[in-house]
Amino acid sequence: MNNNKSHQVAVVIPSYKVTRHILGVIAGIGPEVTRIYVVDDKCPDGSGAFVKANCQDARVVVIEHEQNQGVGGAVMSGYQAAIADGMDVIVKVDGDGQMDATLIPSFIAPILNGEADYTKGNRFFDLEQIGQMPPVRLFGNAVLSLLTKLSSGYWNLFDPTNGYTALHVDVARHLPFNKISKRYFFETDMLFRLNTVNAVVVDVPMDASYGDEVSNLKISKIVTEFALKHVRNFSKRIFYNYYLRNMSLASLELPLGLGLLVMGGSYGLWHWITSAQAGVATPAGTVMLSALPVLMGMQLVLAFLAHDIAAVPRRPIHTALARRRQR
Fold it and tell me: At CA 282, angle to CA 279 and CA 286, rounded to 5?
């Protein structure tokens, strides 16, 4: 890692019902970290006061919310404090003890070396470790990863809900904190917002770990919310990247492809229903008139997806942003 000691690294720990683990998490954070922000998100256990009373680490700063804002709101409070204090890189770890703090150097290295603007954990690199993950969680992560690839534009990433992350402060300054989802959609919404500023995001391999902490996330309550937000982010991203900021051949491929798919599918379905009601076979020519636009539409949509996959940000922006800020 280049010039490790010259950079100010902060850790943000959102704290809600993690009193049993929070001191151990803080104790495991190494000397490469300059400051630790513990954000008490109106914790019913009073974790902020608990840390103040029992933690002697001089790096720790406790931030207390008057109202519960969710994990996203807690992290953004930590981000804003780190920006105000002149930090360079901000790492986010959970307070439940399931994230290995010794991995922090691995998360900040790509950023300090100018290879990434944002790093996030990925528990799917080691096939042996994947076996430890509950099957339902494994399937859910696979589905969420596909939806996140579509909505965020980061086709090279996996494990989108992984909350172990690191972010360069100069990129954080350009994020609309007031618009980012404050609750469980936070990690996914962050990726969408990062794509809008063309930030480079890199996965960092890590092991899956599940302790005795009970998750506050209820899948049945967030399925519809997540689906709607993915559709919203996908629509915004396509409009921003392919029509508002820039236009290319891909800007034509998507609407033409979708239009042909709808036209061919509707035409074929209507004639199939009509023929079925009449008890006669659909003429071959009618089938071809339906199939041809469907096939052409599929080709155009696939061409658009190929362009979108190739358009994943590759050049980190934080160095250019830092130069612009210093002028």
Answer: 155
Q: Are residues 147 and 236 in the same domain?
A: yes
Distance set, CA 327 to CA 82, 83, 145, 149, 323 (Å):
22, 18, 39, 36, 7
Backbone torsions φ then ψ of 127, nearest 5 degrees: -65, -30
Q: Is residue 321 part of a domain?
A: no
Judged by average pLDDT, the poorest of 111-115, 181-185, 249-253, 293-297 is: 181-185
- What range defines the domain where residue 297 resides? 248-310
Indicate the pTM of the whole model.
0.87
Helix (H/G/I), strand (E/B), else coil: 58: coil
The C-alpha atoms of residue 98 and residue 22 are separated, in whole angstroms, by 11
Cβ-Cβ contacts under 8 Å for 86 (sequence gap 6 or more): 8
- Whether 258 is covered by a domain: the verdict is yes
Residues 222 and 252 in one domain: no
Pairing of strands 201-205, 118-122: parallel
20: tokens are: 């049993």
Which token pair is 216? 């506050």
Q: What is the pLDDT of residues 281-298, one digit of tens each?
A: 888 888 899 999 999 999
Instruction: Print burial letters for 154-180: b (CB count within 10 Å at least 16), e (below 16).
Output: bbebbbbbbbbbbbbbbbbeebebeeb
Q: What is the pLDDT of residues 159-210, one digit of tens each?
A: 888 899 999 999 999 999 999 998 888 999 999 999 999 999 999 998 866 5
Which residues are CB-neighbours of 53 under 8 A, at least 6 positions away? Answer: none
